Amino acid sequence: MTGQGDDSAGAPRGAIVVAQARRTAAGERPGTSATWPPPPRKPGQTRQNVQLTGRHGQTVARPAAGTAARPAAEAPERGGVRPGGYNPALDGVRALAVLAVLVFHMDSLRGGYLGVDVFFVLSGFLITGQLLAEWDRTGAVSLTRFYLRRAYRLLPAFWLLALVGFASVVVLGMGTDGERSEFLDSLASSMLYLNNYFQVARQSTGAGWLGHTWSLSLEEQFYLLWPLLLIALCRRPWFARRLPLVLLGGVAAVLVWRNVLIAFGASGTRAYFALDTRADALLVGCALAAWLRAARGGVDGGGRAALTWRRRLARVRAVLPVVGPVALALLAVAALTAPSGWGPRPTSLSRGGFTVVALLAGVVVLALEQGLTTSWLFRALAARPLAWLGKISYGFYLWHFPVVAHWGDNLTGSLGRWPAILAVAAISVALAAASYYLVERPIQRRRRAASRPDRVSPPDRQPALAAVAVAGTGDRLVGTAVRDAGWDLGQPRPPI
């Protein structure tokens, strides 16, 4: 289980006032993203079809007379294309996934490891949405900022775990010489983000400290390459217009490649841990983000291609109230019945089951992004305890493994299976909360303070602030636009 997006909670209302003040100072009329006054009408051009021109030359259609612009905040309630922003229900999904992994490591949920696949889908969806938003806003993606955000988000909590493990195993001498050697090998591979291939060569728990960091390694390998590939695709109009289909083609290619390797004798371990055989889950999330962006007009500014993608999304949205809960139920069944996925012998999961699980997770994400926020599914997954656990799920994932490894058996013998699971979960929550509030959040705040301009935003951030007003006054969209502009005013979503 690994990285999640850096997406933030919605910005406070004070950010709206700041954005409006800056638009006014820049000569913009509040409520639009175009320069005011508008250009003069040409002969025969009516007021209704005058187009406003944005800062970078893009056109913004003026709504026809008598048509009120619908606030962005209403879109999710009506099942419209969600503009982005913090979605607590996705944090609820993340919480369920990390709990499934914990119960699996306590030998009480045979397919609980599939929670990692859910994390992969969520991560691909969130990160790709941010990259595409930056591309649409600026026509480029800053790789430096992207990799720095990933480092700031992932490294502090991981280094804290590594430091505690090093002090326990090496400095204090806890464990045998063999366990010390195992820990150091796993630490080196984890620090280099190569632990997944280390697991292929020799499965190891890292002396009970680092055996689960393979998923962080796999995901970071993907995100080392993915922004470069995405930029290349977006620069080519044919691929850019068909980006969701191209990414779904990538999902199919990974599935075929995994089966080819198995046909030539690859082990289940190789199919489970390697990037080239597990990237299908990440690509499902990427394809979903590309589809929603295309439906919002991100490909051609709302032209024919966007209309086509929007119509396809509308047909799918009509059945989401049914298929969303069904997909979640099928994931639960898979967690109860799935075979071991990484043994020497490939299983049905290696031959196609992982892809099916990823697609089911994608359906759940789409249902939560496009369905009614008043639905029972959204309300249940967005419940505050689940959403809070989802926010600290990165630390929970990091710390639950050593807690299970060092205390799980003793607690089970003393308390019984399920009381021991509750005790391990409580200890893991306490450690994750301490990591989140004492280490991760303070570092994130210092990073945001260091990158925030003192008074006036630089010119390259002003277009994102101006774009907020075109869609309405919804706090969610304001928070998204300000975050994507680099302000990071809200709390970051924890990595998976």
UniProtKB/TrEMBL annotation:
Comp. bias intervals (Low complexity): 61-74
Stretches assigned to the Acyltransferase domain: 88-436
GO terms for biological process, alphabetical: lipopolysaccharide biosynthetic process
Family annotation (Pfam families): Acyl_transf_3 (PF01757)
InterPro entries for this protein: Acyl_transf_3_dom (IPR002656), Acyltransferase_3 (IPR050879)
GO terms under cellular component: membrane
Keyword field: Acyltransferase, Membrane, Transferase, Transmembrane, Transmembrane helix
Molecular function (Gene Ontology), one example: acyltransferase activity, transferring groups other than amino-acyl groups
Membrane-spanning parts: 112-133, 154-175, 221-238, 245-266, 278-295, 316-337, 349-368, 380-400, 420-439
Name of the protein in its database record: Acyltransferase 3
Species annotation: Pseudofrankia inefficax (strain DSM 45817 / CECT 9037 / DDB 130130 / EuI1c) (Frankia inefficax)
Classification lineage: Bacteria, Bacillati, Actinomycetota, Actinomycetes, Frankiales
